Amino acid sequence: MDLMPTVFMDNLRQLSKLQPPYSPEIIANADFTIATSPTEVLQRLSQYGLKATEIMGEYTVNAQILTELTQSAEIEATDLATVNLLQAWPKQLNWVQFNQLVEQFQYAWLNDYQLGLNLEAAFTLARCLILSPSNCDEKSAQLKFQCFLMHTLSRVTHAFDQHQTHFIQHFDVDTHLPNQQLLLNTLQDYSTSNQESSTPEIPALGILMINLNIDFEDASHMGEHLSTMSADIVQAAVQVIQENLNKEAYLYRASTQELVVVVHQLKFSAQLQLIAARLAHAFEEELPLNNITLILKPFFGGVSSLKTAVSPLSLLDSAKMALHQAIVNNQQIEIYDQLITSASLNQHQLDEDIIKALQQNELDLYLQPVVNLKLVGEPETSPFGEYCVSGEFLLRWPNAQRGFVSPVRLIDTIYKKGFGKIFVRWLINTACRRCAELMNSHQRRFSFNINLSSNDLLDEDLPELLPQSIALWNTPAQNIVIEITETDLLVNEEKVMKVLDEIVNLGFKIALDDFGTGYSSMARLRNMPVHLIKIDQSFVRHLAESKEDKAIVQSILKLSHSLGKEVIAEGVEDEASMQILKNMQCDKIQGYYYAKPMPFDDFMPWLAQFEAARGG
């Protein structure tokens, strides 16, 4: 072994313990090639004291060692390219044939390396080939030749692993596209070359960011778990994009759903808009998928150096802003300008202010009354049969400077920033406290609805938080109604239903919000632990003019009542709609016809006026 160079000993110690960490699919696309010239082979032979004439002796294969190796390997011997090559190794070779076989031996070994063999097996394979040279010490030459083969295999394995490491670091495994790291490196190199260039004309650069807009959770009702097909869907989308790009555009994968098109030699500023429009049109067709039918509507955000004179890396940030603005505004294509920067900064500041408002207890729960309608068999509470003993708590942020900020915007920001658990604790405790205030100060018993999302329902702490809150404020559980939407049930129906059962067992009631807009079946509705059904306002607003809406509402009422559920109609804004719902025997009504959401302190004065007007 003292014949081996130090570098080979180091390789032997380090590489013999390695297992092939990458799949064959990656190799096939990594463009790894072996370029060993006859001169290099000759130099490597000379390191072991071998001459070209000595390797032209007679070759034999040690069948016993080869058999032991194939029997011990977990892979079928027929799959081992090195075994097949050795079994067909000629007894004698000229110099050209020897160089060709050395190259084939390296490729054959890399094939087996991918299948699961390690370098220990490679060294065993090298020992199987026995050289009997002429005109020299046979034993010494044989040892030198086998060391040469071992060295050759260790070198190519090491080079292969380095190549694979580089590939993994810079390319996406699923699509084989260059990844975000290579994108950043490319833009940095582009920026550096421009700074060093003495050419006055710098080629224009365009960047187009694409969000594929794949909603796996929302698509789960299709019968296929699309999340398990994410790689196939992204690959299909990549295929569509590549078929519609020219040779001057390069595609990168920046994240799970985001791709980046970099256009070199941009000719005019509207070119990005045209590329985005062409891609958007291409996505109007079904994706080339075998198992499902799926049409995507991606978002595009673009920027060009023709309009924005900043560094390439800054261009990428601007493209991200444009993409974000496209998503926020639900516009498929946005091209960057200075207004987007201002809007992005304003959005960021608004996010910060919302979290600050939550932390400083500046958010509030407004109350919108829910009015009961007199039904047959109920006591005469007023000549009109209308009375109010419940309401829905709705999130508001009373801020004079900001004006009205949508509750959806408030909640989205709170959850996006990771304050969801804090918010839910505040929501439940505030609702219980308000309920206790009415019971203690006004000697009135009311029930109040609060809205929880699927994320809240999947929180394992929720069944413990609810009883803690009602115990703290001495509020009966039946006075708190938890509102959920149909969509929330679809995220993880089995787990959500289990949590709902726990909540009902604690004494709370459940309301199903926005009924009619989701995917609830009669079987699901029958089995859900739901006490109240809330008809979505989209079916109520035009009730007086739309026969279709009347038929839908009437069907929901009959279905719900047949299952023993109470019904609340949302979005009632006029007398005509109220009378129609009353005639249909709807249980409760909520909407601007009676009252808009109001600060909690305004509720009792409103209630007094409401009851006085109805002779209560």
Question: How would you describe what is shown here?
Answer:
The chain has 616 residues and is an alpha/beta fold. Helices cover 49% and strands 14% of the residues. It contains 23 helices and 15 strands. It has helices at 6-15, 24-30, 38-47, 63-72, 81-87, 95-115, 119-128, 138-170, 180-196, 230-243, 271-282, 312-329, 338-359, 407-416, 420-441, 454-457, 462-473, 486-491, 493-505, 522-527, 547-562, 575-583, 603-613; strands spanning 58-61, 129-132, 205-211, 249-253, 258-264, 299-304, 333-335, 364-373, 386-396, 447-451, 480-485, 509-515, 532-535, 566-569, 588-589. The strands form three sheets. Strands 8-9-10-11-12-13-14-15 form an eight-stranded mixed barrel, surrounded by five helices. Strands 4-5-3-6-7 form a five-stranded mixed sheet, sandwiched between helices. Helix 4 (63-72) packs antiparallel against helix 7 and helix 7 (119-128) runs antiparallel to helix 8 (138-170). The radius of gyration is 36 Å and the shape is elongated. The N and C termini lie far apart (105 Å). Mean pLDDT is 81; it is low at 1-29, 217-227 and 376-384.
